[in-house]
Amino acid sequence: MHKFLRYPFFYYITLLCVLLALANLPLLGADGTELPSLEYLRQKHIEYSNYSNQKLNSYYFSGRIKTFSGEEAMDSVIKVFKKKPNKLKSIFEQSIGENLFKVVTVYDGKQGVRLEYFNDVINSREFLDGDSLKALEFESYIKGIFLRASEKVGILKVDGFETIKGIECVRLSVTDLGFHNVDAIWLRLDNFQEAKYRRLKKNSGEAVDIEDVFFSDYVVTDNEQLYAQSSEKYVNDILTYTFQVDHFKFNFGLFNSFFKIEEITPDN
Hints:
Blueprint: H1 9-23, H2 38-49, E1 58-69, E2 72-83, E3 87-96, E4 99-107, E5 112-118, E6 121-127, H3 130-140, H4 145-150, E7 156-164, E8 167-174, E9 182-188, E10 194-202, E11 208-220, E12 226-235, E13 238-250
Antiparallel strand pairs: 1-2, 1-13, 2-3, 3-4, 4-5, 5-6, 7-8, 8-9, 9-10, 10-11, 11-12, 12-13
């Protein structure tokens, strides 16, 4: 007998069958409940959101954002324009007494610029790089965080079930922090949309900041697209902002020139 065939041939056939059977067993949660597959979650996510990669080309939303710093809170309004695949323009306005502070940020898919105005007079113009540019790139995509992660082969793992703010969810770990430092994503089980995602980011020192972003109040637009009307962000369990969407419109009709960096002037 060959030295590698130390056992009868039927032993290896039996072992192979057992391994194949184990590979096809459903994933189980801690309580023994069968976990949904990644492909099932992706299909349900697209089905419930009515998302079509071919039909959704752009969108616009506006709303109110409240930022927190210590015991202080500031109210602002923001308008955001996005165009497929990753163009972004945001207009942030904040009233300070009788004065108006405005920030216009543009990302054309490669470059980013930030312009600051005070009472409609430009104060500064800054081309973004490093972490600021990466943050802008992260926010620029039309696709949500789960859909983008699911397109990366092998980086998502279905871990188990959890309750997030009273909503039953399934938790997925992200095995590659190179995906925008995202560590985990939670999908609601009632509509298979994001309930939360978590990012691990190094701060100015050696410590790691834990960012948790929550989504809630899902509503359907006139063209039957599902989106979260409310969101909030915590850094190391401290609330840093809340956001409420007031208006949302898909396929807004945006030209590429709307996002061109070289055409950004104090009058835009």
